[in-house]
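Quick one: enoyl-CoA hydratase from Sphingorhabdus wooponensis, structure tokens please.
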Amino acid sequence: MTYETLLVEQRGAVTLMTLNRPQALNALNSQVLADLIAAFAAFDADDSQRCAVLTGSEKAFAAGADIKEMSSQSFADMYGVNFFAGYDRVTATRKPWIAAVNGFALGGGCELAMMADFIIAGDNAKFGQPEIKLAVTPGMGGSQRLTRAIGKAKAMEMCLTGRMMDAAEAERSGLVAKVVPAAELVDEAVKTATAIAAMAPLAALACKEMVNAAFETTLQQGVVFERRLFHGLFGTEDQKEGMAAFVEKRAGNWTGK
Ligand code: HXC
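--- reply ---
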């Protein structure tokens, strides 16, 4: 499958997706969204694929939603089509995926990166929610996901001033899982994704679901949800295999059953 604004390749069990609109620093227009929805659906449906990496270029992961596409839209246009709601289909991806961010991740670019299960940043990465400078606000989840990721003080400061945060501050603040040299970013992210792809697939789905539940529920309900999923994994062949492999001092051989 080929896409207009996205390069997709499979590296073993890892799907590598690269945003490819260099002339606009990967600004996220409707075509990019359509391509992302299709590529993530294909990834989720492909049994041979276990983890994905979404990246951009060395200069920009994505410099935001496409300002030129949005500039003349009216309230009726935006509300009528529920503009940006398509990203809910990207966040509905069930398998784990990583955002690998080099360069600018601004506005919608930062918001898209935060839709990932976690972010790995190159040391040249710059994150920001500069929408206020355009007289608007985050619109793809930034006010919610940034606040959950780094807390109110820094999220509010970033949204109100539009300032950028560099990779070191992003790591200190908990926005990114780790920082690596920019030139090694994609290889490092694929390496991490390959390690995740080698885990028992149902356990990986369950981990993702239960960590995400932490943002949607109370501690007590979240702990119950975790425990039920944990119990459920004892109905899988892979749990028997994983524990037998440990006892027999060998690697597990997963069936995904
Ligand atoms: C459309 C964009 C764009 C964007 C860059 N380009 N960002 N086009 N939408 N978000 C285009 C430029 O117009 C230019 O096209 C080309 O990409 C290269 O960009 P330059 O500005 O020339 O590059 P540079 O000088 O290196 O500056 C990089 C930059 C700057 C600092 C990232 O491009 C910038 O500030 N971009 C906008 C960042 C932003 O405000 N993002 C938030 C968007 S709103 P031409 O044709 O001139 O060569 C958003 C809202 C989400 O995401 C939800 C609420 C609405």
